[in-house]
Amino acid sequence: MSSHINNILKQAITTFTCRPDLFCSNLHLLISLLDRTTAEDVNLHPQFTTDSLWNQPGKAPVSCIDIYEDNNITMGIFIIKPGGKLPLHNHPEMHGLIKVIAGKVTITSYSINTEKTVEIDSRSLKSDFLPALSYTHKKILTAELTSSEIVDTSSNTCLLDPNNKNLHEILTVDGPAAFLDILAPPYGTLVPDNGPRLCSYYSILSQVCPNIYRLQENKSPSWYWTDAFPYTGPELQVQ
Ligand SMILES: [Fe+2]
């Protein structure tokens, strides 16, 4: 019998390769599978939830376990150290699903191309509020703070899409935390007419009005780096 994580993988592949008219129902199925996912389903090693691993000198603040990647989806596990975070970053023209499987995190999410951000950008361009160059080079982004929520193992799956909640920062609460992450398409694949799909990092430049911010693209912060651990969960078959 196929394992739960294998069923998730198959459903993820189906969801992100199916006909457009079947996408919503497949996404719904994928989310309902993810909602029932635990650390045991991927055999997450208990070392990740103990302090001794994270106290090792030189230990990366975030560990990644790659589970699967093809041209359409990537599936993996992120584990963040106590008090650590994933810096604010984007997912260009991607969908993302997050299911927390250990610990607790605060996910702060921003949306782009909302009614408010589009209106503010068109007003700013007219009044030349920001140099047009910054927009052209996409170094400054207008984004709407959509939510800041505490998510733990009892919470449902968090979903982001090309506009809604497309940027987020993920901060651990009370100890280390781990989440299963599905991204479609993967980083590195081509965005039509726009080159490879890169992960960009941002900081808040200014607040324009309640919940609307200008975000400045930055290099990856020096305090953020990752190391990799092998996947040790059930064997996966996609055929
Ligand atoms: Fe992310």
From TrEMBL:
<keyword id="KW-0560">Oxidoreductase</keyword>
<dbReference type="Pfam" id="PF07847">
    <property type="entry name" value="PCO_ADO"/>
</dbReference>
<protein>
    <recommendedName>
        <fullName>2-aminoethanethiol dioxygenase</fullName>
    </recommendedName>
</protein>
<keyword id="KW-0479">Metal-binding</keyword>
<dbReference type="InterPro" id="IPR014710">
    <property type="entry name" value="RmlC-like_jellyroll"/>
</dbReference>
<dbReference type="InterPro" id="IPR012864">
    <property type="entry name" value="PCO/ADO"/>
</dbReference>
<keyword id="KW-0408">Iron</keyword>
<dbReference type="InterPro" id="IPR011051">
    <property type="entry name" value="RmlC_Cupin_sf"/>
</dbReference>
